[in-house]
Amino acid sequence: MKNNKVTYLPLTAEYFPQVITLANHVHGEGYLDQQKIVKWTTKGIVNNINTSFVAVIDNQVIGFRCTYSAKQWQIDQWCTPALWAIDSDKCCYFKCNTVDEKYRGLGIGKRLLQLAINAAKQQGAHAGISHLWKQSPHNSAISYFSKCGGILIKSHPDKWHEESKQGYHCILCGDDCHCEAAEMIIYFEKAVENTLGSDF
């Protein structure tokens, strides 16, 4: 199973149903739906350059990454731009990275991030912000992002609490999520060589 060739492609509408199913399986029911995936993907396209990608084996989506283009996303109370040391208009936002558990450890997450960074750079971004799930198994989310050059900016308790009250069912907390998010940044000029060392 793991020897099959992985193909990486831009995330388009034909993959939406599989992406939604995978996201809700990994992150919890209600995490993603049709309306959200359309919004997420649209926010990542500028000048016909798409910053969101899927990893596919035999027409089956085994991983995906959604990324918002710079100036296409809202800076909110969970962001600390004063600590980014870069113009916020030059920052894209890494919205979601998901890999089927059967295919983790093969470098799929690393490759999806690398593709997103390359596309975001073509759009003019110089860095990317993300909120990493601190309660992920074995702290894998933060570990993987750090290996790819991610730097911790700030921790945010209860990042997804409001969403859990609006239909998101956290796989750890149920409908009363108190998971903590790590706000992290990757500066792209330093990220190229670092992504080669990640195995997520």
UniProtKB/TrEMBL annotation:
GO MF annotation, one: acyltransferase activity, transferring groups other than amino-acyl groups
SUPFAM superfamilies in alphabetical order: Acyl-CoA N-acyltransferases (Nat)
PROSITE patterns registered for this protein in UniProt: GNAT
Top-level taxon in the UniProt lineage: Bacteria
Key word Transferase present: yes
Presence of keyword Disulfide bond: no
InterPro entries to which the protein is assigned, alphabetical: Acyl_CoA_acyltransferase, GNAT_dom
Signal peptide: none
Domain N-acetyltransferase per the UniProt entry, residue ranges: 6-189
Keywords (A to Z) from UniProt: Transferase
Name of one Pfam family that matches: Acetyltransf_1
Protein name (Swiss-Prot/TrEMBL): GNAT family N-acetyltransferase
Organism of provenance: Colwellia ponticola
